[in-house]
Amino acid sequence: MAWEKGRGATQNSQSARFNLPQRQADGDWLDAIPAIDGPLPRRRTQVTVEQPRTILTRNTSPDIAFDRSINAYRGCEHGCIYCFARPTHAYLDLSPGLDFETKLFAKPDAAALLRAELGKPNYAVAPIAMGTNTDPYQPIEKDWRITRSLLDVMVETRHPTFITTKSDRILHDIDLLADLARDGLVAVMISVTSLDPAIARTLEPRAPHPLRRIAAIEKLVAAGIPVSANVSPVIPAITDHEIEAIVARVAAAGARDVHFIPVRLPHEVAPLFRAWLDTHYPDRAAKVMAIINDLRGGRDNDPAFGSRMRGQGVWADLIRARFVKARKRAGLNPDRITLRTDLFRPPQGAQLSLF
Questions:
Q1: b vs e for 1-15, b when ≥16 Cβ sit within 10 Å of the residue's Cβ?
Q2: Are 246 and 234 in contact (CB under 8 A)?
Q3: What is the pTM of this model?
Q4: What integer pLDDT is reported at residue 13 of this predicted model?
């Protein structure tokens, strides 16, 4: 299958992990047929409404700093080839490849579900993370505005939230974020994987230009919103040469700190990533995978708590040491941002709102 400009994955094969018959997902047979009357049309993004019964996802992972999160969307149009959330599309009998970035699901009832959750008598307040699985500010947020509706609830209830995104579309909600920031109720993390637009175009093809993300950091900081940068994933022999430059650039933009994770390739992400390397970096594909295998204990992926976020071995130690030095050189603060929980007020019920 030929690479489609503007998309990340170079294939769309289905997974057989859930005892589903292994097959080629819809569309691949068309790609294999030479066009008779010109090139085949590009895939259009499709959005399906999803109506979940609950909106908060709970976790007990010891290496994750939050215990609850919200994902307004399933799938992500940014098309980042390394995205560890791609395998979730296999649950729907869709491909973690091109389906993940073209067949999206939106949850328009998310704000109502959140209000109901926060209104429960036994609800215990703790920061809610957004952007942990798919980006809350991916392109379809422009029309659906689900993330903004969730922030409206956070403002109303004075509930703390962490937001991770690689999109400057977050600036559309700077009014709500500044409101929360005045009370220490929000922190934002902007992902900057590469400063090289040529790398970014294939690595994360529908995410905003790296310089727009840097500019977003500056504008958020100017509005009084605490911002950190996320240099994740670090991909050996593809982006690792930029570590020092990225750290210096985000620090100059006002980021308080910078975090990183070596590239992770769980489940179907590994073959998708290998195919991407063969297409875009055939000259170093074997080298990249050899280093990743060294980082991951001889495998494409290490799912173990702790090491999955840090990597192991000489390469992991080298990357970590470079970040430590770059952080110090840039004068960044490694302290974790703590959000307030004492200002929370449950949403008004239907009867109270009449008075």
A1: bebbeebbbbbbbbb
A2: no
A3: 0.90
A4: 75
